[in-house]
Amino acid sequence: TGNDCVGTAIRQGCESVMQLEMMPCPPAERAANNAWPEWPRVLKTDYGQQEAIAKFGSDPRVYQTTVKEFYKNEAGQVCGALIAKLESQVVDGRRQMVPTGEEFTVDCDLVLIAAGFTGCQPYVAEAFGVDLTKRGTVADVKYATNVPKVFACGDMRRGQSLVVWALREGRDTAAVVDESLMGYTNL
User: What's this model's pTM, rounded to 2 decimal places?
Assistant: First the structure.
Protein backbone atom coordinates (compact mmCIF):
# COMPACT_ATOMS: atom_id res chain seq x y z
CA THR A 1 0.00 0.00 0.00
CA GLY A 2 2.83 2.41 0.85
CA ASN A 3 4.49 1.53 -2.44
CA ASP A 4 1.30 2.50 -4.30
CA CYS A 5 1.22 5.84 -2.45
CA VAL A 6 4.85 6.55 -3.40
CA GLY A 7 4.22 5.74 -7.07
CA THR A 8 1.01 7.79 -7.17
CA ALA A 9 2.66 10.79 -5.48
CA ILE A 10 5.50 10.74 -8.02
CA ARG A 11 3.12 10.50 -10.96
CA GLN A 12 1.16 13.45 -9.60
CA GLY A 13 4.30 15.61 -9.51
CA CYS A 14 5.55 15.56 -5.92
CA GLU A 15 8.76 17.46 -5.22
CA SER A 16 9.93 14.81 -2.75
CA VAL A 17 8.56 11.70 -1.05
CA MET A 18 9.27 9.86 2.19
CA GLN A 19 7.87 6.45 3.13
CA LEU A 20 8.02 5.69 6.84
CA GLU A 21 8.34 2.04 7.80
CA MET A 22 7.89 0.87 11.39
CA MET A 23 9.84 -2.35 11.00
CA PRO A 24 13.61 -2.73 10.47
CA CYS A 25 14.94 -2.98 6.93
CA PRO A 26 14.72 -6.63 5.85
CA PRO A 27 17.94 -8.41 4.85
CA ALA A 28 18.98 -8.53 1.19
CA GLU A 29 19.11 -12.35 1.30
CA ARG A 30 17.21 -15.03 3.22
CA ALA A 31 18.30 -15.51 6.80
CA ALA A 32 19.09 -19.03 8.06
CA ASN A 33 15.79 -19.07 9.98
CA ASN A 34 13.80 -18.23 6.80
CA ALA A 35 14.41 -21.31 4.64
CA TRP A 36 12.33 -22.36 1.67
CA PRO A 37 9.37 -23.04 1.43
CA GLU A 38 8.58 -20.15 3.80
CA TRP A 39 7.76 -16.81 2.24
CA PRO A 40 11.08 -14.98 1.70
CA ARG A 41 11.41 -12.20 4.25
CA VAL A 42 13.90 -10.16 2.23
CA LEU A 43 14.16 -6.57 1.04
CA LYS A 44 11.94 -5.98 -1.96
CA THR A 45 12.05 -2.79 -3.96
CA ASP A 46 8.80 -2.42 -5.90
CA TYR A 47 7.84 -0.03 -8.70
CA GLY A 48 7.05 2.96 -6.44
CA GLN A 49 10.40 2.81 -4.66
CA GLN A 50 12.16 2.20 -8.00
CA GLU A 51 10.52 5.32 -9.45
CA ALA A 52 11.57 7.35 -6.38
CA ILE A 53 15.15 6.11 -6.71
CA ALA A 54 15.17 7.02 -10.42
CA LYS A 55 13.64 10.48 -9.81
CA PHE A 56 15.22 11.53 -6.51
CA GLY A 57 18.34 9.37 -6.31
CA SER A 58 17.50 7.47 -3.13
CA ASP A 59 15.13 4.93 -1.67
CA PRO A 60 12.19 6.79 -0.05
CA ARG A 61 11.86 4.32 2.84
CA VAL A 62 12.97 5.36 6.31
CA TYR A 63 12.93 2.28 8.51
CA GLN A 64 12.11 1.99 12.21
CA THR A 65 10.13 5.24 12.30
CA THR A 66 6.62 6.45 12.98
CA VAL A 67 4.82 9.78 13.12
CA LYS A 68 4.46 11.14 16.63
CA GLU A 69 2.77 14.43 15.75
CA PHE A 70 1.66 16.50 12.77
CA TYR A 71 2.13 20.26 12.59
CA LYS A 72 -0.22 22.72 10.94
CA ASN A 73 0.28 26.27 9.72
CA GLU A 74 -1.91 29.28 10.57
CA ALA A 75 -4.33 28.32 7.79
CA GLY A 76 -4.80 24.88 9.40
CA GLN A 77 -2.92 23.02 6.65
CA VAL A 78 -0.40 20.30 7.42
CA CYS A 79 3.13 21.71 7.18
CA GLY A 80 5.32 19.21 9.03
CA ALA A 81 5.63 16.10 11.14
CA LEU A 82 7.55 14.99 14.21
CA ILE A 83 9.04 11.56 13.48
CA ALA A 84 10.03 9.15 16.25
CA LYS A 85 12.70 6.50 15.73
CA LEU A 86 11.78 2.98 16.89
CA GLU A 87 13.56 -0.12 18.10
CA SER A 88 12.45 -3.69 18.61
CA GLN A 89 11.96 -4.64 22.28
CA VAL A 90 10.16 -7.35 24.20
CA VAL A 91 7.34 -5.75 26.23
CA ASP A 92 5.16 -7.95 28.45
CA GLY A 93 6.43 -11.03 26.64
CA ARG A 94 5.67 -9.68 23.14
CA ARG A 95 8.11 -8.19 20.65
CA GLN A 96 7.07 -4.64 19.77
CA MET A 97 8.49 -1.58 18.04
CA VAL A 98 8.89 1.12 20.70
CA PRO A 99 10.18 4.71 20.55
CA THR A 100 13.89 5.19 21.27
CA GLY A 101 13.45 8.80 22.38
CA GLU A 102 15.26 10.03 19.27
CA GLU A 103 13.08 12.28 17.10
CA PHE A 104 13.37 14.52 14.06
CA THR A 105 11.07 16.81 12.09
CA VAL A 106 10.25 16.91 8.40
CA ASP A 107 8.47 19.54 6.35
CA CYS A 108 5.48 18.24 4.39
CA ASP A 109 2.37 19.56 2.74
CA LEU A 110 0.59 16.28 2.06
CA VAL A 111 0.32 13.13 4.19
CA LEU A 112 -0.96 9.81 2.88
CA ILE A 113 -1.54 7.19 5.54
CA ALA A 114 -1.23 3.74 4.02
CA ALA A 115 -2.46 1.54 6.81
CA GLY A 116 -4.84 -0.95 5.26
CA PHE A 117 -7.27 -2.71 7.52
CA THR A 118 -10.06 -5.24 7.20
CA GLY A 119 -12.98 -3.10 8.28
CA CYS A 120 -14.26 -0.55 10.71
CA GLN A 121 -13.38 -0.47 14.38
CA PRO A 122 -16.67 -1.05 16.24
CA TYR A 123 -16.26 2.08 18.39
CA VAL A 124 -16.06 4.24 15.23
CA ALA A 125 -19.29 2.78 13.86
CA GLU A 126 -20.93 3.22 17.27
CA ALA A 127 -19.74 6.84 17.56
CA PHE A 128 -21.38 7.71 14.24
CA GLY A 129 -24.32 5.34 14.62
CA VAL A 130 -23.67 3.66 11.26
CA ASP A 131 -24.67 0.12 10.41
CA LEU A 132 -22.03 -2.52 9.69
CA THR A 133 -22.09 -5.45 7.28
CA LYS A 134 -21.44 -9.03 8.39
CA ARG A 135 -17.81 -8.51 7.28
CA GLY A 136 -17.40 -5.56 9.67
CA THR A 137 -17.35 -2.85 7.01
CA VAL A 138 -19.66 0.17 7.00
CA ALA A 139 -22.93 -0.57 5.20
CA ASP A 140 -23.68 1.95 2.46
CA VAL A 141 -25.66 2.72 -0.66
CA LYS A 142 -23.52 4.70 -3.12
CA TYR A 143 -21.20 5.75 -0.24
CA ALA A 144 -24.08 7.07 1.92
CA THR A 145 -24.55 5.31 5.27
CA ASN A 146 -27.82 4.85 7.15
CA VAL A 147 -27.05 8.15 8.97
CA PRO A 148 -27.83 11.31 6.99
CA LYS A 149 -24.70 13.26 5.94
CA VAL A 150 -22.34 10.44 7.02
CA PHE A 151 -20.49 8.82 4.14
CA ALA A 152 -17.91 6.04 3.87
CA CYS A 153 -15.36 5.01 1.26
CA GLY A 154 -12.18 3.00 0.76
CA ASP A 155 -11.27 0.31 3.30
CA MET A 156 -14.03 1.54 5.61
CA ARG A 157 -16.70 0.24 3.21
CA ARG A 158 -14.77 -2.26 1.04
CA GLY A 159 -12.47 -3.89 3.55
CA GLN A 160 -8.77 -4.26 2.87
CA SER A 161 -8.05 -3.23 -0.70
CA LEU A 162 -5.61 -1.38 -2.92
CA VAL A 163 -4.76 2.29 -2.55
CA VAL A 164 -5.96 2.98 -6.09
CA TRP A 165 -9.44 1.92 -4.98
CA ALA A 166 -9.25 4.31 -2.04
CA LEU A 167 -8.26 7.16 -4.37
CA ARG A 168 -11.08 6.35 -6.81
CA GLU A 169 -13.63 5.99 -4.03
CA GLY A 170 -12.44 9.19 -2.37
CA ARG A 171 -13.17 11.09 -5.57
CA ASP A 172 -16.51 9.35 -6.12
CA THR A 173 -17.52 10.00 -2.51
CA ALA A 174 -16.56 13.67 -2.84
CA ALA A 175 -19.02 13.93 -5.74
CA VAL A 176 -21.79 12.26 -3.70
CA VAL A 177 -21.13 14.58 -0.73
CA ASP A 178 -21.06 17.61 -3.05
CA GLU A 179 -24.41 16.61 -4.54
CA SER A 180 -25.84 16.02 -1.06
CA LEU A 181 -24.80 19.49 0.07
CA MET A 182 -25.40 21.46 -3.12
CA GLY A 183 -28.16 19.51 -4.86
CA TYR A 184 -25.86 18.96 -7.86
CA THR A 185 -22.20 18.23 -8.49
CA ASN A 186 -19.57 19.31 -10.98
CA LEU A 187 -17.01 16.84 -9.65
Answer: 0.65
